[in-house]
Please model this.
Amino acid sequence: MNKRKIGRVWEDAACAYLQQQGVAIRHRNFKLYRKGEIDIIGMDREKTLLFIEVKYRKNAHHGSPAEAVGPSKIASICSCSDYYRIRYGFSDSQKCRFDVITVTGAEHNDIKWIKNAFDYEGRG
Model:
């Protein structure tokens, strides 16, 4: 399987998990041209807009999945989130959160939801 197909499987598992937790999935793979992509955008029960990055590792030999979300990835997600909020008419007062879902193991049996994984100081 190529990386895109494998990524789709991880994201499917993450979406199923999030939906079980009460998150309404609004969009998947939201792209801002060449500036980046947000894997999952959802809304929780408290009406907080969630921007979620999904990271997978078969095992921890090369570090945890969360370690793969570095400064450039965070900057990309933040740029995309700004565009998303403008495009879909969300005000600056809309509560937003940046989360990471990590998936470890060949059977996707270890899913962790890291809420508020990073802050975005550029938001109003």
User: Anything to note?
Assistant: The CA atoms of residues 23 and 44 lie 5 Å apart. The two ends are 41 Å apart (CA to CA). The chain has a mean pLDDT of 84. The helical segments are 3-20, 71-87.
